[in-house]
Specification:
- By secondary structure, the protein is mainly alpha-helical.
- Helix content is 58%, strand content 9%.
- The longest helix is centred in the middle third of the chain and has 30 residues, at 155-184.
- The protein is globular, with a radius of gyration of 20 Å.
Length: 301
């Protein structure tokens, strides 16, 4: 995500500096025309607007509250665009601890996969202080397809939980449809083209369907092991509200099964492989699979 954000911002004329713990990512930023820094502290001291995209709670604590982190190093008046999917309590902790240092944090989770981010095809659910949002709006628009200001801080995350609940269900429903098609003897290329053009389609069918048609789940647009965190967050959020989420609950075991089968680093579309195994499906090789896969990938980038 972060690399995609940087590339689009540079293309829009922004000066971009950045830090990643992976030296290869810093080298990529330099190749794009950005300025890689040796630490989060160096980035924080030099930028009026910061964008964070972090994969875990440990990464959040290190980036914000570790030695030389944002809370310690950023100047008063800095605006932080926090795009990660995190528990609501952690989002509030970030805002409150940064506010003590005069740093404004916006809760701005992303709706879309890494592949969509690469093509500037993501939506941002921005929430928090409106003055801080106004100051950061141009940056948000610089790496997204659309930006929604969603009101008070935390609303962005709540909307992301709702969106990811639907993603969880729709991804599995796409896999279910694919496997039903396999069992019935339908050609998957035909199934994808026809269903995509009708009432049964969904954004997940369009984005992850081609991976299921191909039966290949690397490189991942969202890894199973990373998405497990998102599933846990939604589960806790719904439980705290005493809100029934029966389809979401019914979906969870299939993601757990994919993880248990050694697919942790594969795309979440790999739930299709779980259903194939349950159905006793053995794929038939199609003579036109390669050309069709290329076409569908182009359509969904």
């Amino acid at each position: 995500m972060g690399g995609a954000f940087a590339r689009h911002l540079l293309a829009d004329g922004f000066a971009v500096s950045g830090f990643d713990i992976d030296p290869k990512r810093r080298a990529q930023l330099k190749k794009l025309g950005g300025r890689p820094e040796a630490s989060a502290a160096a980035v924080s001291r030099g930028c009026a607007v910061l964008v964070t995209s972090l994969p875990s709670l440990a990464a959040v604590d290190a980036a914000f509250f570790g030695r030389g982190g944002i809370a310690e190093s950023a100047k008063r008046g800095t605006v932080v665009i926090e795009t990660s999917t995190l528990p609501l309590a952690k989002k509030h902790e970030i805002r409150e601890r940064c506010a003590l240092r005069g740093i404004a944090v916006l809760d701005c989770p992303v709706s879309g996969t890494g592949a969509q981010a690469a093509n500037r095809d993501i939506a941002i659910y921005a929430s928090g202080d409106h003055k801080a949002y106004a100051g950061a709006e141009a940056v948000l628009k610089g790496f997204s397809r659309s930006v929604y200001y969603c009101g008070e801080y935390g609303n962005g995350s709540k909307l992301k939980y709702v969106a990811n609940l639907l993603v969880t269900i729709h991804n599995l429903s796409t896999a279910e449809a694919m496997v039903l098609g396999m069992k019935s003897g339908l050609d998957l290329d035909l199934l994808y083209r026809v269903i995509r053009d009708g009432a049964g389609t969904s954004r997940m069918f369009e984005v992850r369907g081609p991976l299921m048609v191909r039966g290949g789940y690397r490189p991942a647009t969202m890894k199973i092991d990373v998405y497990k965190k998102d599933i846990d967050i939604i589960e806790e959020f719904a439980a705290d509200l005493h809100c029934p989420v029966p389809l979401f609950e019914a979906s969870k075991p299939f993601y757990a099964a994919a993880h248990a089968q050694g697919r942790a680093l594969e795309d979440t579309a790999a739930v299709c492989a779980v259903l194939e195994q349950m159905a006793g499906v053995k794929r038939k090789r199609s003579t036109n699979r390669k050309s069709t896969s290329t076409r569908t990938k182009r359509k969904t980038r």
